[in-house]
Write a structure and sequence with these properties.
The complex is a heterodimer. Chain A is built from 5 helices and 2 strands, in the order ββααααα. Chain A is mainly alpha-helical. The model of chain A has no long low-confidence stretch (mean pLDDT 80).
């Protein structure tokens, strides 16, 4: 498939292949980068799989289904010590 | 005050501070080092000198290490919003959730594209396209800090939005007012320019180490010249944006200004405290001297706060107890209005529950009269509106002292570099060696001023910190606090270890 861009014919297949090769060879040729990627992946695993899943649930999303319920809950929270509620 | 577990609030604050301070080790270095890499590479492309290429590649490697270790540490803050600060995140989420997500996606694609070219593209794309990519990484990294700082600026000066009692959320009324909020603008410019300065100090530190060890001398000298020039320009910019930032604080958060200056009794022709030791027994409203000892510069605080020598700068006592002469309303009156607003909000909620439309509308109308004081309704006494004085005062003065020292340091490095006697100036190199630690200290102090100085507010005047939290048990937050402490320590050790190894290897000269 060819794309005309600024009067230049660009072969999309060839372009995608060269982008793929660019990334592939780039990743293959990494030295320090491999170690850094390992750290990034371990960090992301710890953050998203362990911390987020087990220790950081979204409180409102976990306890309420709809936006209306969440809004009502927060409204309740921010007004619960007003004199109106205290006298009830 | 709400019957919340204050120890939970304090643990949540400690955890947020820990995460933000850790995150802020990496961010300023990314902001500044990305531009320095672009400068080094521009010199290489312009001169064609391979030495500049190896210098660029070396600093780019350190930039990559810093980026890799720091990446996604800010996301933890978002986890904390959802878990520990659910009231806050609900109340403002409608405004900032989408822009922050867009910013994340934008940063990801920009970085995935140009970052890859920057690191994988040497000798594989044209010199000019490689240089363009390096500049795009620098611009992109800095742009990705915009929204989070706009969000922070909004919390310090909430404009362009209105509270909707139906949804218990702030809703945007004017996008431009939010993004061009003067507090947000000065926060972004001051923060990013201080990042540039910090990165210049980082380069000084490593280059001085090479000079002391008598290794890679030419590379170190060249790096020092570029870092000193950029550092000097950044220092001037930091000074300018800092002045703007202080002016905005004076206009929008006068209590914070009073705290950072230890000013209790407001005055005209107010002097600025250049240095001083606070009297820790001093309380608002008592007659004690706030300082044990101090050195002042006459008129300067009035000039800084209001751009006028003879203007009045309010102190803590004026703001807490009011000052009729200067037209300053005291906190007691604001508390009364705030409590009225909260009562009307509660009545609105009750009427809505009872499906009594008329009562709901009446409550809403009354609420709107006092809604700007809503946050004060959560305070028990006027003195609750006063932040810690000592922490922001000392943090501010440390930041300013270091901010004054850095340009002198850059001038000294530039002078001896141009004179050609830098390697013989033995007294200067150890100072350069520790300069990035001082820079980090100044960076963290700046955030302490911004965040401790705005207490007790999460959203200035509208939502105190203790109402912004989730109603959780303190032990939940304690556990994750120590988990983060462990994780962050490990990551920091990893970064320092990898960086030291790479510094010890040094640049691949001639490549």
């Amino acid at each position: 498939m060819k794309l005309n861009f600024l009067n230049r014919n660009i072969n999309l297949k060839a372009a995608s292949h060269s982008v793929y090769t660019f990334y592939k060879e780039g990743f293959k040729g990494m030295v320090l980068g491999k170690k850094l990627w390992k750290i990034i992946l371990i960090k992301l695993f710890v953050m998203f799989v362990i911390l987020k899943l087990f220790f950081f649930p979204n409180y409102l999303n976990t306890n309420f289904q709809t936006d209306e319920e969440k809004g009502n809950y927060v409204l309740e929270q921010i007004t619960r010590n007003t004199s109106l509620n205290k006298t009830k | 005050m709400l019957d919340v577990d204050l120890s939970m609030v304090n643990w949540a604050r400690a955890q947020f501070a820990l995460t933000a301070m850790y995150h802020w080790i990496f961010v300023p270095l990314t902001l500044g080092l990305s531009f320095l890499c672009a400068f080094f590479e521009s010199i290489y492309v312009r001169t064609g000198n391979k030495e500049w290429k190896s210098i660029t590649k070396f600093w780019m490697t350190l930039f990559g290490i810093n980026f890799a270790i720091g990446v996604a540490t800010g996301i933890i803050l978002e986890f904390e919003f959802g878990t520990n600060w659910s009231n806050y995140s609900w109340i403002v989420g409608d405004i900032f959730g989408a822009p922050l997500a867009i910013e994340g996606i934008f940063a990801f694609f920009l970085e995935a594209t140009f970052f890859a070219v920057m690191f994988f593209g040497w000798n594989r794309v044209s010199k000019n396209f490689h240089l363009f990519s390096t500049w795009m990484v620098a611009v992109g990294s800095n742009l990705s800090a915009v929204w989070i700082l706009v969000a922070n600026g909004w919390m310090q000066n909430p404009v362009g939005m209105v509270f909707n009692p139906e949804t218990a959320r702030f809703e945007m009324q004017n996008f431009f007012e939010v993004i061009f909020n003067p507090v947000a603008v000065s926060k972004f410019t001051h923060t990013s320019s201080s990042g540039f300065l910090f990165a210049c100090l980082f380069i000084l530190t490593i280059s001085c180490w090479y000079l002391i060890k008598e290794r890679h001398i030419e590379m170190a000298k060249k790096s020092i010249v570029v870092a000193s020039v950029f550092g000097l320009l950044s220092s001037a910019y930091v000074g300018f944006t800092g002045d703007e930032s202080a002016y905005e604080v004076a206009q929008k958060q006068p209590m914070k200004l009073a705290a950072i200056e230890g000013l209790y009794q407001g005055e005209k022709n107010a002097p600025i405290v250049a240095a001083g030791i606070l009297n820790m027994d001093k309380q608002p409203g008592d007659n004690q001297d706030p300082f044990l000892v101090k050195v002042e510069i006459p008129y300067l605080l009035s000039l800084l706060a209001n751009r006028s020598f003879n203007s009045f700068v309010p102190g803590v006592d004026d703001l807490v107890y009011g000052n009729k002469e200067e037209g300053i309303e005291g906190v007691a009156s604001k508390i009364t209005k705030g409590k009225q607003a909260l009562n009307d909000l509660a009545q609105f909620k009750q009427a809505r529950k009872e499906k009594n439309k008329e009562k709901a509308e009446q409550s809403l109308t009354r609420f709107k009269t006092n809604q700007d004081y809503m946050g004060y309704g959560y305070l028990n006494k006027p003195e609750d509106a006063v932040p810690s004085i000592a922490i922001p005062y000392y943090a501010f003065h440390i930041m300013v002292a270091l901010g004054t020292f850095f340009p002198i340091l850059f001038i000294a490095f530039l002078f001896f570099s141009l004179k050609g006697s830098l390697t013989q100036t033995k007294w200067l190199l150890p100072i350069g060696l520790i300069s990035s630690l001082l820079g980090l200290f100044a960076q963290q102090s700046g955030w302490v001023v911004a965040e401790v100085g705005r207490q007790p507010w999460a959203i200035n005047g509208l939502l105190p910190v203790h109402v912004a939290t989730t109603n959780l048990a303190a032990r939940n937050v304690q556990i994750t606090f120590f988990m983060f402490l462990g994780l962050f320590t490990l990551l920091l050790i990893a970064e320092i270890k990898i960086m030291l190894k790479q510094i010890s290897i040094g640049p691949e000269e001639g490549k």
